[in-house]
Amino acid sequence: MKLNRRLLVAAIAGLFSTAPQAQQAWPAKSVTLVVPFAAGGPTDVVARTLAASISKTLGQTVVVENKLGAGGTVAAGYVARAAPDGYTFFIHHNGMATSTALYRKLAYNPLTDFEFVSQAVDVPMTLLARKDFPANNFQELAAYVKTNPQKINLANAGLGAVSQLCGMLFERALDVKLTAVPFQGTAPAMNALLGGQVDILCDQTTQTIPQIKAGNVKFYGVTTKSRIKALPDAPTLHEQGLKDFEVVVWHGIYAPKGTPKPIIDRMNAAVRAALKDPDVGRRMADLGAEIVPDSKLSPEGLQTWLKSEIDKWGPIIRATGTFAD
Ligand code: ASP
To answer: Which of 66, 156, 173, 240 is positioned for an S-S bond with 163, CB 3.0–4.6 A?
Structure first.
């Protein structure tokens, strides 16, 4: 009887002591951060910059894994089905919202198949053409595109990519239809632009600033409403006549639905720490990326934001008639 009571007490004590231990044990091995586009491109650069700092905070390597295809939807479907054990996370941009209007069937529901961790940085886009493209400024570009739409192709990273969203809004603003050339990320799209195989690309500053500064591309303006610090002399498309043209690339970090809340909270804290890391701050600023305010860093904040982005882009995309089955 005495022995039994001692066993019972030990068992209860064990219950209380193992719960926090299991929690503290995470992460017991490397954590994967899935990126939905090609290595070396804008989303990948943001992911790797954050991953290096998150690794320091967690004391475990954060491995970036590029899962390519279908404008980011292959990666999103993969993460939605991954084990919710705290070892798979996902970073994606506006495509998490726009894909719901672009695809009639998605293998996942962005609002119900994920846990929400945090937002991270906002990145402007830039409108570029190959170096020997005939238009030397935005007015020439607009005139040339309107008179020669059949001659021009537009590179993007597939339906669901922000390059596709930006290109589609550009076409809509000029009332033209160009030939889309999809890649599995804008790293290969940029290579094609530099090689002269494609004509126009709209892409994030995280990849384009070095090419603009080196004079390797024609550059027509930024996609934000106001000029940006990283390219202070560059005019916006809005101020050059594309009234209200605006694409800002936001980033969300997600985990498969069911990932334990204590793990989500620790990852959230690690993302917040990364965004305060001076190395991250410098690198992001050089690349034109802006760290979002604290008010956007909660899991609930990301969930609400994603809903609002789905509501914002859905009608705009459906009005263009662009979709994939
Ligand atoms: N910039 C790409 C996009 O258009 C994605 C990437 O390669 O990072 O969505």
So the answer is: 156
Gap from CA of 170 to ligand 1 centroid (Å) = 17
Domain with 202 in it: what CATH number?
3.40.190.10
Structure tokens at 141: 């570009």
Report d(CA 186, CA 182) in Å as an integer. Answer: 9
SS (H, E, C) 10-61: HHHHHHHHHHHHHHHHCCCCCEEEEECCCCCCHHHHHHHHHHHHHHHHHCCC
Q: Look at the pTM and tell me if it is higher than 0.70.
A: yes
Is pLDDT of 322 > 90?
no
Using an 8 Å Cβ cutoff, are 25 and 265 in contact?
A: no
- CA 91 to ligand 1 centroid distance, Å: 12
* Amino acid 321: pLDDT: 83
> For ligand 1, what atom is nearest to the CA of residue 161?
9
* DSSP H or E run through 183: none
Residue 16 domain flag: no
Structure tokens at 266: 């620790």
Distance 308 CA to ligand 1 centre (A): 21
204 and 59 housed in the same domain: no
76 CA distance to ligand 1 middle (Å): 14
Relative to the CA of 187, which ligand 1 atom is closest? 7
Q: Which residues line ligand 1 (CB under 6 A)?
A: 37-38, 41-44, 157, 161-163, 185-187, 203-204
